Amino acid sequence: MSSTLIRGGTVVNAEGAVRADVLVRDGVVAALGTDPSWTADRVLDATGMLVIPGGIDAHTHLEYPIDGFTTRTADDFHSGTVAAAHGGTTTVLDFVKKEPDRTLRDTYLARRDTAAAKAVIDFGLHAIVPPRAQQPDVLDDLRRLAKEGATSWKFFMAYPGTQMVDDGELLEGFELALENGVLPMVHAENGHMIDRETRLLLESGRTAEPFHAVAHGHDSEAEAVHRAVVLAESVGTPLYVVHVSSAEAAAEISRARAQGHRVWGETCPQYLAVAFEDYQGLGERAAAYLCSPPIRERANQQGLWTFLATGALSTVATDHAGFCLHQPDDLPPQKLRSPGYFPKVPNGVPGIEDRLMVLWETGVAAGRIDPCRFVDLVATRPAKLFGLFPRKGAVVVGADADLVVWDPAADHVITAAGSHMRTDYNLYEGLRVTGKPVHVLSRGDHLVDAEGTFTGTAGRGAFLSRGKPHLF
Ligand code: URP
Ligand code: ZN
Ligand code: ZN
Ligand code: ZN
C-alpha cells in the first residue's frame, strides 16, 4: 500500500495541538513528529494548516424511507458519502428503520449491504427500536444486533402511531441496552403534545409552514428530555439525546450531568447557525427549513452555544435528512408537495457536507469554541460514544488515517451550486466561511485534494461493526 507524509502542519486533537508531521502507511497513522529522514510516495504540504481527525457525523438519514415507505431522502449512500467527504467527514452513522415486511434485523442486514455497495467512506448503523406492536419479538433482534455492531439504539418519543414508543417500552429498551453494552439514543419530543398543538393550529386555520415550529414547542422538547433522563437514571443506563434544538432542553441535560448522570446531548449546525426569523416570512419556501425539532428563534442560539462550550452538548451532528424543493425525476414530490400546509412537509434538512465549515465559522472563527473543542465535538466524542475510539476520532499512532488537512484561513462561500448533496438548495446559501478542508484522507486514501478532485469509488467505504461505548 501507499504512503503519505503530511508535512508542516499543526496536529489538533481534542486534548491539545502540536506542530508535527504525520506519516501515513498502509492506511493508518504510522508516526507523528518531525524526522527529516521520513519519506513517502506522496508529500502534502500542510504549512499554515491544521491536521485534524476526519469528521464523524453520528446522525445521518441517507436514502431514509418516510411516509410509510412511499418516499425517501434525496441523498443515497453514494451521493451522501461523497458530499460528506468533500466537507471533511470520513465516517457516517446512519439509521435502520424496520421495513414493514422485514424484521428489524433483516432490515439491518439488507441496509448494511446496500450501504456497503455505495459508500465511499466508512459507515455504521444505529438501530431504531420500533413500537413492540410492529415486531413483538424485537428484543431478540436487538440482542443479536448489539453483537453485530449496532451498539446504539434510537427510541422515538415523537410520532405517535408510527414510531413513538411509550414509557414502558422505553424502560424495557433502556434495560436491555444496559445489559448489552449499548448506548440508547432518544428523539426527545412529546408526540402527544405536538399532535394536540397541531390540531389546535389547523382548527384555527394556522396551517402555513412556519407554524410547524409553533406546534413543536420548547416545552414538548424539554418535557421529553426530562422524562428520558429520569427514566434512564431509574434504570441506571447512560443516555444520548439526539438533535437538541432548545436551550431549555439542553438545560435539562446540564442539570442531570451536574447530578452525576451520564447523559450526552447532540446538537446540529442548523440550530446554531439558522433561526426561525430566517424562514418566518418566506411563505411556502419555509418548507426548506422544516425539521423536527424545529429551527428555533435566534434568542435560543446563545443558550446552545453556552452548553456546547461547557459540555452538556457534547457532539455536533447533522441529522442530514435532505429533501428537494423541486423534484428530481426519480423521487416523488417532497418539500413543496402541499404548499401552505405544514403537516405534509417532510421533516428534515440537508447539511452533511456543511457541518465542519459551519461549526468552524460560527464557533471557532466567532471565538465561541477553540479548535480542540471543535475536534472533540465533530470527531472525538462521537468516536468514543459510538464505539469507534481510538481507531477513529483522533490523530494518534495506530489509528485509521482518516485525516483532514484544514485551512483555517480559507475564503469560501457555501452554495448549493458548489455542493455535492443532491438537494436543490443549501440551508447555508451565501454563508462566507474562513475554514475549510483542503485534503481529505480515508484510511490513507486521498479522497479529496486541494483542487476538490474526488477519487473515491463507490463501495470502498467499510461497514463498521462498532464496539461498546467509551463513556469518559
Ligand atoms: O426532521 C427530522 N429530524 N427528520 C429526520 C428524522 C429524525 O427524527 O431525526
Ligand atoms: Zn429524530
Ligand atoms: Zn434524525
Ligand atoms: Zn489532498
TrEMBL record:
SUPFAM superfamilies: Composite domain of metallo-dependent hydrolases, Metallo-dependent hydrolases
Metal-binding keyword on record: yes
GO CC entries: cytosol
UniProt keyword list: Hydrolase, Metal-binding
EC number of this enzyme: 3.5.2.2
NCBIfam families recorded: D-hydantoinase (TIGR02033)
Protein name: Dihydropyrimidinase
Originating organism: Peterkaempfera bronchialis
Lineage: Bacteria, Bacillati, Actinomycetota, Actinomycetes, Kitasatosporales
